[in-house]
Design a protein that fits this description.
Layout lengths: L14 E4 L9 H10 L10 E5 L5 E7 L4 E7 L15 E4 L1 H8 L18
Parallel strand pairs: 1-2
Antiparallel strand pairs: 1-5, 2-3, 3-4
Length: 121
């Protein structure tokens, strides 16, 4: 089997988080069009684009890897993605560690990831 590269969040990847929510039913082509029209960004750039659904219970990630697009969805089983960028700009740039916090439904502006469980001695 050939190597399969999944969406990777490395320090070298530019990450754009869309401020405006999207319809969670949108697929690759519609989200790529949003990258062009709303974010003024090239969806073929290799950037990692992150969008939140209107209800805030799910996020969608889009990335082009040189061969094709990856589209991933994370829907929370409970709660919502509480932190989301605001402002007049269409997107906010995040660093890799901030995106990882966001994907864990945490606050990318925090200095540490959320605590998931107690560490036993």
């Amino acid at each position: 089997m050939g190597d399969s590269i999944l969406i990777q969040i490395t320090p070298q990847v530019r990450i754009l988080v869309a401020v405006e929510p999207v319809d969670g039913r949108k697929g690759i082509d519609a989200i790529a069009q949003l990258c062009r029209e709303k974010l003024s960004a090239d969806p073929f750039s290799g950037y990692l684009f992150i969008f939140r659904t209107r209800r805030g219970t799910a996020i969608k990630l889009l990335q082009y890897d040189g061969q094709g697009y990856w589209l991933a969805t994370k829907r929370l089983s409970k709660g919502r993605f509480k932190w989301w960028p605001t402002g007049s700009e269409p997107a906010k740039i995040l660093r890799a560690h901030q995106a990882q916090l966001l994907l864990a439904a945490g606050n990318p502006d925090a200095e540490a990831p959320p605590v998931w469980r107690k560490v036993s001695a």
